[in-house]
Amino acid sequence: xxxxxxLRLAAGxxxxxxxxxxxxxxxxxxxxxxxxxxALAAVAAWFGYExxxxxxxxxxxxxxxxxxxxFLAWSxxxxxxxxxxIVAAAAALxxxxxxxxxxxxxxGALGWRLAADATSAALLGSATTAxxxxxxYLIAPGLTIAPLRRLLAALLGATLAxxxxxxxxxxxxxxxxxxxxLEGETALWLPVRWGLGFVGPLVLGVMAWxxxxxxxxxxxxxxxxxxxxxxxxxxxxxxxxxxxTGITL
Length: 249
Description:
The chain is mainly alpha-helical. About 80% of the residues lie in helices and about 0% in strands. It contains 9 helices and no strands. The relative contact order is 0.13.
């Protein structure tokens, strides 16, 4: 579970950088993302070493090397190959995520699991990147608000996509009668998972959007802090429920 979570978050973080203009955002922001992705890939390799196949280890090794190269590139003037390294590192992490899903016996159909990986990565990445970008306005108050609003739009879209996938998977797996076919504890925890993982980020995302419109970036960042916590708890709980039910929740 931890391996998948780390890879989802790392891939989402780097993919969300493609939504941002390289300038006037401080290159430090990009370097931070690469370092976080590098650490997450290392954690995934550490905890998944015993069960990972050769392909997954190679993918994680390539991802870590590309993250280090991306960090160095964004340390140089003009960030040579900076955008290309974002794409390459994100692709390596995505490949590792696919290989991690296909390794071993995982509950649920592969198609549903891969769709969950994609939507979860988008949700985790957009929430965390938006929160981190909010801090940039503390040291660069003159920065245009457009990048933050773009990430907030991505957060709302990713949340809706993740919710739609979870609802569709639940409907498909239970024949439209989840209260009848799900076991007691799962039916009890499912509303908590959806409330934390979907309703909370949606409400907080809309509130952050409204505060960003009036350039109250500190308030938006505070709201995004809570949204990130909700997203993390919701996705971890979703993985636990998927492990017990085999349904992408």
